[in-house]
Design goal:
The chain starts with 6 loop residues before the first helix and ends in a 5-residue tail after the last helix. It is of the alpha+beta class. Strands 2-1-3-4 form a four-stranded mixed β-sheet, covered by helices on one side. Helix 1 packs antiparallel against helix 2 (23-34), helix 3 crosses helix 4 (53-62) and helix 6 (89-100) runs parallel beside helix 7. 46% of the residues lie in helices and 11% in strands.
């Protein structure tokens, strides 16, 4: 198990606890700092707040916004809303999975990409649509998404 730096969560708890912040706010701040909720950090938080770890885990598992595994540098969100589904979102997803060697919800070994399936990105006119971090790519074909992934791998996209 890798050693996690506890200093950032100590700062978060010093800042939040005196203000009476909710556990959810603290978990959001921890995730913003670490990119996910590391187990060691949650145990430390429970100890510092003097609450059972089960209370923290209960809150963290209840809300879909929290994650317990780190994400890749580039988070790929493939829209599977109605318009994208009809326009070929599953084929785009399959090409990404094959190209990266991961399934939905997984991260590549090199921590470069994480693949997520989402219900809607709100870009129906561009179907099928993928967002990579904050960049939106529409009217995708298998060849277009392969070229796009290659550009990210080569560091040609910010």
């Amino acid at each position: 198990m890798s050693k996690i730096d506890i200093y950032p969560v100590s700062r978060i708890l010093e800042k939040e606890t005196p203000r009476g912040s909710s556990l959810i706010t603290i978990l959001q701040d921890i995730q913003a700092e670490y990119g996910y909720l590391p187990r060691e950090v949650l145990l430390f938080t429970a100890q510092r707040l003097n609450v059972p770890i089960t209370k923290i885990l209960g809150a963290a598992t209840f809300y879909a916004q929290f994650r317990f595994e780190p994400k890749g540098t580039y988070v790929i969100r493939v829209c599977h809303g109605t318009a994208c589904h009809i326009a070929g979102a599953q084929k785009i997803t399959d090409v990404i999975k094959q190209n990266l060697g991961i399934s939905e919800g997984e991260t590549t070994q090199d921590m470069l990409f994480t693949l997520e399936k989402v219900a809607c990105l709100g870009c129906c006119a561009l179907a099928p649509v993928v967002m990579i971090n904050e960049n939106t790519y529409g009217k995708l074909t298998p060849n277009k998404i392969i070229r796009t992934l290659k550009e990210y791998r080569e560091g040609r996209v910010e």
